[in-house]
């Protein structure tokens, strides 16, 4: 039986996980596809870097990407380099040459996904990207196919493994931010530039990709309002625990009467909420649909083999389509013209932390400012920091974000307030 030839572009964490699975599960994969899959070429910039790796017969490293494009036997190109410039050139070229593409590149998908999907359809080839969102959790195809009969109203998720690993370790072990970030990098969870993880950009890209499918719109990274975890510190985590909350970086896309709102920001959630128990590099997505009601998808959101698992699943689907002449059958369905509601205008309860002078009546002054903005308080706690200062942590009732912006301005003008620290939305159960 003739094998289906595959090329890898890039051989880092994900490239190596993909290759390992294709080799070690080769028999099983061949049986399931109906033909063996063979990686014949792996494009890398510098072969010498990989000289310690013994490749099986029939697989070679190449240092020119043209060796892949000019090889007519290669039908599937797996792009696992990352970035949006060279990677985009390669993906466009492969599709235009009639080669199907599988990629894990959320940066590229969130920037140009709709364009690339149209290009794939035009050239009657497949573009698959399961690995671009939630690592090993099969969510793209689930939304695309299994949940296609639902009108989806909301998706809420922990979409980034690195930040979840950092926040879990800070919460459970009292670990320091920098130390845990370095560990996440060593484990292969973080992006080449981890700013994308900790500033929430990676989660925002994933939310754009998921929302495009769930809400049938062309949604891009720029449509998402983003805030990362860099301002969260141990004090907030400790106060959160006192109030019964756990901190998570959430991606939330919600249909409202005014349109779709898309937000990524740190959020307190009740410690009893199922998302609170999603720890370490695990990710999860909550989906609300008018048929399924609520469903939660959970698993490893990053790492070599989990992400490789999603890539291999996609390569197998493409290979089956090659065998059955069904390439290009999976068309994107962008048909909704609904407006985006200004993201960032989140109505919810909020946690506010302020540093104040230890003067008489300080709590009453703070309460007056809250009342003036029509904000009612659910809980409040005060902790002495020194002889002259203390921290006040407040949990408000649900109110529009604009009320919170106003009260923060008012606090900043209050002489007894030394500093307004964190302001964190609290997700309703
Ligand atoms: N790590 C993870 O858990 C996940 C990653 N992803 C995505 O998968 C993709 C790859 O990530 P990951 O494997 O972690 O990244 P790595 O940095 O580990 O690997 C990237 C590989 O691509 C190569 N590469 C980068 N740029 C070029 C280029 N211009 N020409 C040739 N080779 C290039 C690198 O080569 P060199 O060694 O020469 O730099 C390296 O081999 C990214 O899009 C990432 O966002 C998606 C889900 C999970
Ligand atoms: N850096 C990403 C990798 C997977 O997408 C993450 O931490 O989730």
UniProtKB/TrEMBL annotation:
Q: Which GO terms describe its molecular function?
A: homoserine dehydrogenase activity; NADP binding
Cite the Pfam families for this sequence: Homoserine_dh, NAD_binding_3
Q: Which reaction does it catalyse?
A: L-homoserine + NADP(+) = L-aspartate 4-semialdehyde + NADPH + H(+)
Keyword NADP in record: yes
Enzyme class, UniProt record, top EC level: oxidoreductase
Give the residues the record marks as binding L-homoserine. Answer: 191
Q: Where does NADPH bind?
A: 106
Q: Which residues form the signal peptide?
A: none
Could you name the domain of life of the organism this protein comes from? Bacteria
Q: What is its EC number?
A: 1.1.1.3
Q: Which NCBIfam families match?
A: PRK06349.1
This protein's name: Homoserine dehydrogenase
Annotated source species? Veillonella criceti
